[in-house]
Design a protein that fits this description.
heterodimer, A: 629 residues, Pyruvate-ferredoxin Oxidoreductase, domain 3, Rossmann fold, 8-stranded mixed β-sheet, 7-stranded mixed β-sheet, 19 helices, globular, B: 323 residues, alpha/beta, 9-stranded mixed β-sheet, 11 helices
Chain lengths: 629, 323
C-alpha cells in the first residue's frame, strides 16, 4: 500500500497514513540504539501494531566509534497486517553519527526517499577531522534523494540532563513516539517497568528525555505517520527466537542442557542458565563442544532426553558424538542456530548452510530427524515436538534455527502450558527376563531402551556395531541388521508426517519451496506477486529428514519448482557453470535427489535475511522471462 | 535432583551377590594382559560393597581398556575415544543415585581426551576414574602414546620416541580441585584392591593411575619395578592406606605420607628414580560440581509451568489502550 497524506494538522504538519513502516536506529556500540529499538517495538506492539525487530550487531564488544562496521542498532518493522519478517528497505533512519548511517546506506538498506534523522553535533565538532568527515558525508547525502533532517540531539538532551551520551536513546524514542503518533503513556509505562526495580531514580530523567524528544519532533518536523493497528488476538508474547527456544526447552520437560559458548546460539543458554535452574534442571557449560554433546548424551542415556545447543562450527565438532547417539539409539535433541560458514565464517550473520551437514555430516549411515522452525513461535513449539520424537523413536533430532530467528523479535500468541508437553518420568521398573536392549521390531525398527536403575536390564551400550543383546558384533549380519532397523525407525516416523500445505493455489506456473526462517519473506513475496496476477505458490518444509509423503505430487502441479534459501549455490549464468558442475542450494540438492524433478534454486550468502522485495522481483523476472520464450 | 529418590530401597530378602554375579561377557583381552587383574579387583570391590548391579555404570572410551564395561554385569557405556569423562559426568549429573566408574587407556585419557581429563578433575564429580596405563596404543597395534618412555621403538616411532613421557600424576596433581590421586600396579592385587576401595569411598573424583603391562607391545615396561620391589615406594598413613603384612614384607621401601600434604604428593609424583604407589593426595573438602550446581528444586511439571507462566508474564504484552 502506498503512503497517503490523510490530513494536514493545524501547524501545517502532514499526517501520512501507511500500512507498514521500517525504521532503523543506528549508533556506536553502547549508545543504547538497541534498547531504543526494542522499547519502541514494544510500545508499537502495545499500541496494536504487528512488529518485527532485528538487532544490528557489530562483531566486537567495543568496536571503534564512528565507523560503519562498528554500528550497532535495531531495525523495527511495524505494520497493520501480520508482520512475519524484517521486510525490505528502511523508510526512516535515526543515526547517532553519520558514519553509522553510511554503513547502512552503502549496504543499500534504505529505500529511495528515505527519511534520515541525523545527529548534527559532529558538524561543529572541535576535532576538525571529525567535522570534515561530517561535512563530506552531508555532501554525499545531498546526491541522494533521502530527506535529511539534522537533529541537534546532543544539544537538546543537554537541556534536560548532564550526560547526553547516556540518554540520547530515550530522546530518540520520544521523537519516534511523536513521528508515529504514539500515545506517550505507553512509553512512560515502559520506562517505569525498566527502571522501577533497580534504578527508580532513573525514571524521572528518562521521562524528561522522552518528553524532550517528543516535543522537538512536534515542533520541528513537518510530518507525522499513522500506522493503523492490526487486529489483535488476545495475549501475546514478545521474544526473540532464542528466548522462545529456551522457553520451549523448559516446556518440553528436558532437564539438562549442555552447551559451549558460540554465537549466535549462546543467548538461548543465557536465558536457560537461570530459568532451567529455577525449574530444577541444569545448564552445563562444558569445556568444549564435544564435551557438551557427550554430557548431554550421558544425561539422556541415564534419564530423560537432554539438549545441546550450538551453531554450525560447534555441530561440526559434535559429529562423532551425533553418530554415537544414532548408533546407540540414545535420544538427543541438538539445536543448531546456524550462522554464516564455512569455517568460522560470519558469526553474527544469517545463513542456512548447515542442512546437508546436519543430514550427512557424520561418518557412515546415520539416519536422524532434521527439522527447522520457520517462525519465532515455532522455536518454542518445535522443542516440545523434538523432545517427543527423540524419545519415542530413540533418535537424534537436529533442530536447525538460524541467526535470523535468533535475533529477530516478534509477538506471538501467549502459549498456555499443557501437561502433555511434559516428558513422562523415566522407567525404573524391572526388565522382563530375556528382554534385549535392542529388540528391534521388524516392522518399525523400534526397540525399548533400558535405563540404568532398571533391574535386569544390565547391558553395555556401545558405539561399535552391535547385536540385539548390545554385544560387539563380530559377524557381518549384525551390522546389516542394525543399519536396517535404525533406518526403518526413520521410515516409521515418516509415516506419521502430514504433507505440508501449499500457500496459494495448489497448481500454477511456479512453486517456491523454502525451509526455516525464510518462510515469512517468501510468503509475503508470493502474496505480492499473486496480487500482481502471477500464478506462484509457496511450500514450506518443517521436516527436512524425513520428508512427508505427498511433496512430489504437490510439486508436479507446477510448471516450475525452485527453492529460495540463504546458502550458497552457483550462478548458472556464469560462463564456467553448467549442469555438469553446478552446485545447488542445500534443499534443492535434497529435492532433486529424492524426487527426480528438475528443481532450480535461488540463493545467496550476503549474510542478511532475504527481503520479500528481492524474492518478488526474482519471481517477476522468472515468470516474465518464461512468457517471452 | 531430578525427582529421583536416592532412598527408594524396599525391604526384601536381598540376595547376596557373588563375584560371578558381576561377571559380564568373557574377556577377549590377551593372555597376560594387565587389564584382567584390574577387572578382577573391580569385581571384588563390587562384591565386597554389594553394589546393586542396576545402579552401577562403567563408562569407557575406546581402546583395549575400554572393553572393560562389556566384561562387567552392570550397566555400561562403551562410548567414543577420549570422551568417556563428559559422558560419565552427564550420567552422574542426571543420576546422582548411580555408582559411576570410568575406565580409560593412556591414549584415551592423556592424548585425545586430555581436555576432558583436566576439566573433569576440576569439576570433581563423584566418579571413580581408572587410567589403565600401559604406555602404548594396543588395539590399533603398537603406536606411541603420551606415556610411552623415551626411545621406545613403535610402529609410528621406528627410530624411537623422541619426547619424554608425560607424567599423568604431576598433571593431575597440578589441576585445581583434584581431590584424590593414587597410583598402583596391576600386578599387586591386594594393593590394587585397597586403592580402588579407597577411591570408591572418596567423595569426589578419584583418579587412579594403574600401571599395566601389555603382553604384546610393552611387556617389559615395568620390569624395573617387578624385578626390584625397592624401586617402589609404598605410601602408608593412618589417614591413607593400611598395608597387609605380606605386602609390607615385599615392599620394604615405605614412606609415611599424609595424603593431605599436596606439596609432598607433588614431590613424590615427580620422583625420577622411584615410583610411588598408594594414595598421593586426598581432600574431601573440595566441592563436587554435581552437588553445588543443584538448585534443590524438584523438577516437576507444576514447577516448570510456574517458571513458564512467570516468563510469559515478563515477556507478555496485551494490546490495550494506554492508561
Amino acid at each position: 500500500m502506498k503512503e497517503q497524506t490523510v490530513r494536514v494538522a493545524a501547524n501545517s504538519k502532514q499526517i501520512i497514513q501507511a500500512e507498514e513502516h521500517i525504521i532503523e536506529i543506528v549508533s556506536d556500540s553502547g549508545e543504547g540504539a538497541q534498547t531504543a529499538g526494542q522499547m519502541f517495538g514494544t510500545i508499537s506492539a502495545k499500541a496494536g501494531n504487528s512488529v518485527w525487530t532485528v538487532e544490528i550487531i557489530p562483531a566486537e564488544i567495543e568496536p571503534p566509534p564512528r565507523t560503519a562496521p562498528g554500528a550497532s542498532g535495531n531495525r523495527i518493522r511495524i505494520g497493520s497486517f501480520e508482520i512475519t519478517n524484517a521486510g525490505d528497505d528502511a523508510k526512516l533512519v535515526v543515526a547517532f553519527n553519520e558514519q553509522a548511517l553510511m554503513g547502512g546506506m552503502s549496504a543499500g538498506k534504505f529505500e529511495s526517499g528515505c527519511i534520515v534523522l541525523l545527529e548534527s553535533m559532529w558538524g561543529k565538532h572541535p576535532n576538525p577531522a571529525i567535522a570534515r568527515e561530517y561535512a563530506a558525508t552531508m555532501e554525499k547525502l545531498k546526491q541522494t534523494d533521502y530527506r535529511i533532517y539534522e537533529v541537534p540531539m546532543e544539544a537538546e538532551c543537554l537541556k534536560v540532563v548532564q550526560d547526553a551520551r547516556r540518554g540520547k536513546n530515550m530522546f530518540v524514542v520520544g521523537m519516534l513516539c511523536n513521528i508515529y503518533s504514539r500515545d506517550l503513556a505507553y512509553a512512560y509505562k515502559e520506562i517505569e517497568n525498566k527502571f522501577k526495580a533497580k534504578k527508580p531514580a532513573m525514571i524521572k530523567p528518562n521521562i524528561d528525555l522522552l518528553d524532550a524528544g517528543y516535543r522537538w519532533a512536534e515542533e520541528n518536523l513537518d510530518f507525522r505517520f499513522e500506522i493503523p493497528p492490526c487486529p489483535q488476538q488476545g495475549a501475546q508474547l514478545v521474544a526473540n527466537g532464542n528466548t522462545s527456544l529456551a522457553l520451549g526447552v523448559i516446556a518440553s520437560g528436558m532437564e539438562v542442557c549442555a552447551m559451549y559458548p558460540i554465537t549466535p546460539a549462546t543467548s538461548a543458554s543465557h536465558y536457560l542458565s537461570q530459568a532451567l535452574y529455577e525449574a530444577g534442571g541444569v545448564v552445563h557449560q562444558a569445556e568444549d563442544e564435544i564435551a557438551a554433546c557427550g554430557f548431554a548424551i550421558g544425561a539422556s542415556y541415564a534419564g530423560k532426553t537432554a539438549v545441546t545447543i550450538t551453531s554450525g562450527p560447534g555441530m561440526a565438532l559434535k559429529t562423532e558424538l551425533m553418530a554415537l547417539s544414532v548408533m546407540a539409539e540414545i535420544p538427543l535433541v541438538l539445536v543448531n542456530v546456524q550462522r554464516g560458514g564455512p569455517s568460522t565464517g560470519l558469526p553474527t550473520k544469517v545463513e542456512q548452510g548447515d542442512l546437508l551437514s546436519a543430514i550427512f555430516g557424520s561418518p557412515g549411515d546415520n539416519p536422524k530427524v532434521v527439522m527447522a522452525p520457520a517462525t519465532i513461535e515455532d522455536c518454542f513449539y518445535c522443542m516440545i515436538t523434538a523432545r517427543k520424537i527423540a524419545e519415542t523413536f530413540r533418535t537424534l533430532v537436529v533442530v536447525l534455527s538460524d541467526a535470523n530467528l535468533a535475533t529477530g523479535q516478534a509477538a506471538f500468541p501467549r502459549p498456555v502450558p499443557q501437561k502433555e508437553w511434559d516428558a513422562p518420568p523415566i522407567d525404573q521398573s524391572p526388565v522382563p527376563k530375556g528382554a534385549l536392549p535392542y529388540d528391534w521390531d521388524p516392522k518399525t525398527g523400534l526397540s525399548k531402551r533400558f535405563i540404568p536403575g532398571q533391574p535386569g536390564g544390565m547391558h553395555t551400550l556401545t558405539g561399535l556395531a552391535h547385536t540385539r543383546a548390545s554385544g560387539v558384533a563380530y559377524d557381518p549380519e549384525a551390522n546389516q541388521e542394525g543399519c536396517v532397523n535404525r533406518s526403518l525407525k526413520l521410515a516409521a516416523f515418516q509415516k506419521t508426517l502430514k504433507a505440508p500445505k501449499v500457500f496459494g493455489d495448489p497448481a500454477g506456473d511456479l512453486l517456491i519451496v523454502g525451509w526455516g526462517s525464510t518462510k515469512g519473506a517468501i510468503e509475503e513475496a508470493v502474496t505480492r506477486a499473486r496480487k500482481g496476477g502471477l500464478k506462484v505458490s509457496a511450500l514450506h518444509l518443517t521436516y527436512l529428514q524425513p520428508m512427508a509423503s505427498g511433496i512430489k505430487e504437490i510439486m508436479q502441479q507446477f510448471k516450475q519448482v525452485m527453492t529460495v534459501e540463504i546458502n550458497y549455490s552457483d550462478d548458472p549464468a556464469h560462463e564456467l557453470i553448467d549442469e555438469n558442475n553446478r552446485r545447488y542450494a542445500n534443499l534443492a540438492w535434497l529435492l532433486r535427489a529424492r524426487y527426480l524433478i528438475d528443481i532450480d534454486c535461488w540463493s545467496n550468502v550476503y549474510g542478511q535475511p532475504i527481503k520479500p522485495g528481492e524474492i518478488e522481483q526474482m519471481i517477476r523476472d522468472r515468470l516474465s522471462a518464461r512468457k517471452t520464450h | 535432583m531430578f525427582g529421583l529418590n536416592d532412598n527408594c530401597s524396599i525391604d526384601q530378602d536381598q540376595e547376596y551377590l557373588t563375584l560371578e554375579d558381576y561377571q559380564g561377557r568373557v574377556s577377549r583381552w590377551c593372555a597376560g594382559c594387565g587389564d584382567n587383574g584390574i577387572l578382577g579387583a573391580t569385581q571384588r570391590l563390587c562384591r565386597d560393597e554389594q553394589l546393586p548391579r542396576e545402579k552401577t555404570v562403567f563408562v569407557s572410551g575406546i581402546g583395549c581398556a575400554a572393553r572393560f564395561p562389556h566384561y562387567m554385569n552392570t550397566y555400561g557405556f562403551h562410548g567414543l575415544h577420549g570422551r568417556a569423562l563428559p559422558i560419565a559426568q552427564g550420567i552422574k549429573m542426571r543420576r546422582p543415585d548411580l555408582h559411576v566408574f570410568v575406565n580409560m587407556g593412556d591414549g584415551d585419557c592423556c592424548s585425545i581426551g586430555t581436555a576432558h581429563w583436566i576439566h573433569a578433575l576440576r569439576a570433581n564429580m563423584d566418579l571413580v576414574v581408572m587410567l589403565h596405563d600401559n604406555g602404548i596404543y594396543g588395539l590399533t597395534k603398537n603406536q606411541a602414546s603420551p606415556t610411552t618412555p623415551t626411545g621406545l621403538k613403535t610402529n609410528t616411532t621406528p627410530r624411537g620416541t623422541m619426547l619424554r613421557a608425560l607424567n599423568p600424576l604431576t598433571v593431575t596433581l597440578g589441576v585445581t580441585n583434584a581431590s584424590f590421586v593414587a597410583q598402583v600396579g596391576e600386578w599387586i592385587p591386594d594393593l590394587l584392591f585397597e586403592v580402588l576401595k579407597q577411591a570408591f569411598h572418596h567423595k569426589g573424583l578419584s583418579f587412579v593411575r594403574i600401571l599395566q603391562r601389555c603382553p604384546h607391545f610393552t611387556p617389559e615396561l615395568y620390569n624395573a619395578l617387578l624385578t626390584n620391589p625397592d624401586n617402589i615406594v609404598l605410601l602408608t598413613h593412618e589417614k591413607g592406606m593400611q598395608i597387609g603384612e605380606t605386602t609390607a614384607k615385599i615392599y620394604k621401601r615405605q614412606e609415611h605420607h599424609d595424603p593431605s600434604d599436596l606439596n609432598r604428593a607433588r614431590e613424590l609424583a615427580e620422583m625420577s628414580d622411584r615410583v610411588p604407589m598408594g594414595i598421593l593426595y586426598r581432600n574431601e573438602e573440595i566441592g563436587r560440581y554435581n552437588e553445588i550446581s543443584r538448585s534443590g528444586i524438584l523438577p516437576t511439571w507444576e514447577r516448570r509451568a510456574e517458571v513458564l507462566e512467570s516468563a510469559f508474564d515478563r515477556f507478555g504484552i496485551q494490546a490495550s489502550a494506554a492508561e
